[in-house]
Amino acid sequence: MQSTAQTIPLPSSRRRIPRPRLPRVNGFFFFILPGVSFVLSLTLFPALYGIYISLTNLNLGYVGYSFVGLENYGRLLEWDDLGLVTRNTLGFVASVVVLQVAIGLLVSILLNQKLVGHQVMRSLTILPWVLPSVVVGLVFAQIFGGSRLGIANYVLSLFGVGQMSWLADPALAMALLVAVSVWRGVPFTVIILLGGLQTLPRELYEAAVIDGATAWQRFRYVTLPLLKPILMISLIMGTGGALNSLDIPLALTGGGPGSATELFSISLYKQSFFHLDISYGAAIGTVMLVVNLVLIVLYLLVLQPRRSANHD
Amino acid sequence: MTDVVPVRGRPARRPLEPSPFTYLFYPILAAAVLMPLGWALLGGFKNPNELFTYPPTLWPRHWTIANYVDVFVRLEFGRYLINTVVVALFTVVLTLFFAGLAAYALSRWDFRYKDVLLVTLLGLQLIPSTVNIVPYYTIMNHLGLLNTRTALVLIYTASHIPLAIWVLKGFFDTVPRALDEAAQIDGCSKWHTYWSIIVPLSLPGLSVAGFLVFVTSWSEFLVPLVIASAKDVAVTSVGLFTFFGPDAQTSYVYLFAATVITVAPVVVAYLFAQRFLISGLTAFSDK
Description:
The complex is a heterodimer.
Chain A: H1 27-54, H2 71-78, H3 82-111, H4 118-126, H5 133-145, H6 150-158, H7 170-197, H8 202-210, H9 215-243, H10 247-252, H11 264-273, H12 278-311
Helix pairs in contact in A: 1-12, 2-12, 3-7, 3-9, 5-6, 7-9, 9-12, 11-12
Chain B: H1 25-43, H2 48-51, H3 66-73, H4 77-108, H5 114-125, H6 129-142, H7 149-174, H8 177-185, H9 190-201, H10 203-219, H11 222-227, H12 236-244, H13 255-281, H14 283-286
Subcellular location (chain A): Cell membrane
Keywords (chain A): Cell membrane, Membrane, Transmembrane, Transmembrane helix, Transport
Transmembrane segments (chain A): 25-45, 90-111, 126-144, 174-197, 226-243, 278-302
């Protein structure tokens, strides 16, 4: 390791001030180690430990456990609801991500226009991001399923739409779950995309206008290509957010009616802490971890070239 | 702001004039956000009978704060609030302490694999608590920390340190190194330099990271639900879920008042510090 404290500009080495404290070369170690070991011990270590638990028959209802190899994964493959939950999860994640990024892109382009009042609108639009998502789930459950099936049905009835039991109908419950997740998820996408939009060079748009490009052409041929890395980031983060989302599903539908909105995240929670089959839950968690690792690698790959480009 | 760009050429058709058509979307956006929130806010001030009337009323006919009183007296929500505040504040302090030291080192020293470390931290931060919830439970069980606020603080701190490091390193990078060097010539150790020079100069950065950590700790749900759901240590999100979740028995008349109480601190924090929060969040995509 090279000495890095040589940056102090001194005329000659004879006048160097002796520093009897920590050896300079390894000083950073004492600054970094506590934080990094903290992070490792409660992020990476649990993830690995979860893989280990998934290879045992640990159950919160019994004392002791033994190593059972891949048995939990075998059970997972034979699980009756596997197809249903896979379809639910894929459908949920895909719908949430597509809607979230599409709406987020539209909204952030609108909010990027410096009209009178755009700052107030921006604050308002981003507000749902600070609301605890479990609260969002509970309030929407009430709006769509409270007394007389909720205020939402009353409002719809004013427009001539008949009463709908949102939380009792499988398709409607899923649609509602997607809608509420999007409502809570759009602000974060808007924050990221607005940050990206504001870095786009104005000159390009001016040149495009002078060349006679329409608004749509400016969007299609200037905004979209330049925004691509940030769009990728919001797609990846949106996918992870939807896949791992548990607060809103649990508060809004709890997986119901029946298993109509059951997602892998809900199964993990129910298997582990209702059926106490915590090693089976860990197996579901490990499968989810693998998907998350793919997303994380993608995320870092998208981020990496930008980083080094900034440093050059 | 950066939008003062001199426009050369034809000033008559100034390009990129914002389109007034955008205003058409403002009411839609505002309604989408405000309607559910307004319904909850106003619902908290209605008396229980009014919540069940049909057709429903939007504006309370008789304003009452009885729901708020009941939420505190009958549901003992004060305890949940205190738990949430305590956990969030300890998390903020611990996170800033560890992340600050690491960020300072990462800002001032160069060593091999530094970029790898920074990127790894960012990746670790993205391992979701949903995946880690089972191991969290077993680990805290082993440590005898189930149903303690300590367990929550430890887990939140670990999962927030990477983001805080990224935010703080960005700020420390803007503090001139000449100050460190001057302090060292005066005989300050790195440790003293950090605490007496860098920290006081980086209070804006520390606030950004602190606000961000506070708001996200406040909203945590799954970890406290599984790790600390006992009544005396539970936080507001868990309290709300146990009272008003799908399987709960409590009448929902209190839901709206309890919601407002839960949400008010973070909304106020947001209104005062949204610039801070947002500049911190873009650390996810900007660096």
